[in-house]
Design brief:
Layout (H helix, E strand, L loop, with lengths): L35 E7 L2 E7 L7 E3 H7 L14 E4 L2 E15 L6 E10 L7 E3 L1 H7 L1 E4 L5 E4 L2 E4 L1
Parallel strand pairs: 2-7, 3-6
Antiparallel strand pairs: 1-2, 4-5, 5-6, 8-9, 9-10
């Protein structure tokens, strides 16, 4: 239901507002946030993955490929765009690579065929699953006391 913002008396009755008992120490609220991380399997090896709903596309940093997939240059596909933007500035794309990511699940593993943009100057060391594949596969993150990740109709606790 949309809020009615035309009411000028909206904020006058703050005693009616519900107070949450859990509050962070003043000036320390930022320490409670964490990235949504999981361990996935690629080519029969475990790798860390970050699910980032603020990233418009999925990426793999060059350093990650250098460390884990030494023959990555043979699998490189061209990209139309060369420069990508991030919160830390411009990033240079070398190309894309296709990887099959398997998310382990107690009710059966989930297989995601992904095309990752390879960035030469990414500041992260892990794979990053952006909103492109989150929307495609129906991945939702519910941030509560126990973080829940749903993929399609399957649900897994973080």
């Amino acid at each position: 239901m949309p809020q009615d913002t035309t009411n000028k008396n909206l904020c006058k009755h703050k005693q009616d507002a519900q107070t949450f008992l859990v509050t962070p120490t003043k000036g320390r609220a930022y320490i409670h946030g964490t990235a949504t991380k999981m361990t996935v399997c690629i080519d029969n090896a475990q790798h860390p993955l970050i699910i980032d709903s603020g990233a418009p596309f999925s990426i793999v940093p060059r350093t990650f490929l250098d460390n884990h997939f030494p023959k990555w240059e043979n699998q490189l596909l061209p990209t139309k765009a060369k420069n990508f933007k991030s919160a830390s500035g411009k990033m240079t794309s070398i190309g894309t690579t296709i990887k099959e990511i398997i998310i382990p699940h107690r009710k059966g593993n989930i297989r995601l065929n992904t095309e990752l943009v390879m960035l030469d100057d990414a500041h992260i060391q892990q794979l990053l699953l952006g909103s492109d594949y989150q929307r495609m596969y129906g991945i939702d993150i519910y941030n509560s006391k126990n973080r829940h990740i749903t993929i399609g109709t399957n649900q897994e606790k973080d």
